[in-house]
Amino acid sequence: MTSDADTDPGLRVQNVGKTYHGAHKPLFTGLNFDLGRSGRLAILGRNGQGKSTLIKMLGGVMPASEGSISWRMSSSWPIGFGGGFQGSLSGLDNVRFLSRLYDRDYHETLERVDDFAELGKALRDPVKHYSSGMRARLAFGLSLAIEFDCYLIDELVAVGDARFQRKCQEGLFEERAHRAFLMASHDVQLIANYCDRALIIESGRAKMFHDIQEAVEVYTWLRAA
């Protein structure tokens, strides 16, 4: 499975596969694609096909079993996955740590996170006491405050009420329209609105679709099968 060539890709994935320890066959294998610096790629697949696993591999949270992942632009941690935080630290301390790690001003970053994530006094609590939704809000707020060339999204829009979901969409897809992203989602309307290509993973293999409407139709058929 190959994608169209990009003369200056910000991300190149070559022959990537994942096999879990003790598994009789790979979760997926032979993934090859490039992502340009303003590319918007959907990662589609039924439950258990490896969408979230691929996002975690791209974010460096999980190693690939084979192949190579090469970044030439900055990328966020997987938004929607709260495993990147130090649970014993408060939200404030996690903001402080990541501000230092990415060489950002702590007070400015905190102000932006506080405004976006709407966690209020909970920022003073240890992250291990956060719900999954609160962790996702913190992750999303931090990723927008720090700013990246490419955002890795794993079902983030399922977080919060309709108002907050709209806030997420505006913050990422509209205010940062020039940024790249890879998004794993079951929301076909969101995919159709904001993505320009789609990678569908099915039965261990993947296929790139350059027509997003065709990808949505194929994915909808697979989910109904």
Primary descriptors:
about 220 residues; alpha/beta; Rossmann fold; about 25% strand
Brief summary of the model shown:
By secondary structure, the protein is an alpha/beta fold. It is built from seven helices and nine strands, in the order βββαββαααβαβαββα.
Topology:
Blueprint lengths: L10 E8 L9 E8 L4 E5 L6 H8 L7 E6 L3 E5 L11 H11 L4 H12 L14 H15 L3 E5 L7 H13 L5 E5 L3 H7 L2 E6 L2 E5 L2 H13 L1
Parallel strand pairs: 3-7, 3-8, 5-6, 6-7
Antiparallel strand pairs: 1-2, 1-4, 8-9
- Give the fraction of residues assigned to helices: 25-40%
Please report which band the strand proportion falls in: under 5%, 5-15%, 15-25%, 25-35%, 35-45% or over 45%.
15-25%
N-C termini distance: 23 Å
The total of helices stands at 7
What value does the Rg take, in angstroms?
Answer: 17 Å
Overall 3D shape: globular
- Describe the sheet with the most strands: 6 strands, mixed
**Order of helix and strand elements from N to C terminus:** EEEHEEHHHEHEHEEH
Question: What is the number of beta strands?
Answer: 9
The class by helix and strand makeup works out as alpha/beta
Report mean pLDDT, rounded to a whole number: 90
Under the CATH scheme, which class of the domain at 1-74 and 183-225?
Answer: Alpha Beta
What topology, given as strand order, has the largest sheet? 5-6-7-3-8-9
* Residue windows where pLDDT falls under 50 for at least 5 positions: 1-5
Q: How would you name the CATH homologous superfamily of the domain at 1-74 and 183-225?
A: P-loop containing nucleotide triphosphate hydrolases
CATH topology label of the domain at 1-74 and 183-225: Rossmann fold
